[in-house]
Amino acid sequence: MADLLNDSQFDKFRKLIYDSSGITFSENNRSILDSRLKDRLRDGKFGGVDEYYNLVVEDQSEFKAFLDSVTTNLTRFFRNQPHFDALLNYVIPHVIEQKKKTGETKIRIWSAGCSTGEEPYTIAMLLKDKLPAPYTFDIMASDISLKSLMVGQQGFYPDSRMSGVPEAYLGKFFTRTEKGYQAKPDLMRTIHFDYHNLRNESGVSNLDIVFCRNVLIYFDEPAQKATIDRFYRSMARHSYLFIGHSESLFGMETKFQFLKTDWACLYQKNED
Questions:
Q1: Do 12 and 19 contact (CB within 8 A), yes or no?
Q2: pTM value?
């Protein structure tokens, strides 16, 4: 099948995507951008490639829909279990230790690049089950895919998406329906889903824990560093960052410290 984009058009679209989101399309994944644009043009009946480029530059809502179409949303409940073991067995006890010094009881968490919500719901289930009183938590879950965020907000998942959720948690946190599982309101209230482009400042501060897993792989090195620096600024003086198991801050000039626990490797911000 012939390519939709000529070289000039490919350069224009990938620059637009990079400048606005930090996501990099190289020659190696050019076919993905080509395929997603074909689908977008077919679905929207927008005419030719050049006309569509002008539209996404001028129309913010169409630009968000376009970005949605070219992002990859692969996730599942309890993905990379060792991270959640480290969260419960190492991170949460250390966060609580810091909270005791200030008298705070609220733990603030950000699930960045949350896709359809399985990650923040996993965190919420674990903390509702294991977090000792009087401590509570809030989870901010963000993504640039509006379609994915809607799935998370609705909190409904078909049977095929529930793999990995312990049987006890299914009964405790979800309601069985004819077509799948609906998250219970008490669980859903702990998570706030919102659109956010990691290219921009989050506007939040004093976060205790940030999850941003399997997102940085789509950025080049300058965009990765800028994103990591923004995370650092948004986090509390003693806080923790989880990134994907195939991602690393090695070689990057960053203030985060590498942390190896008995369960998984992560990063910490540690300012006295």
A1: no
A2: 0.85
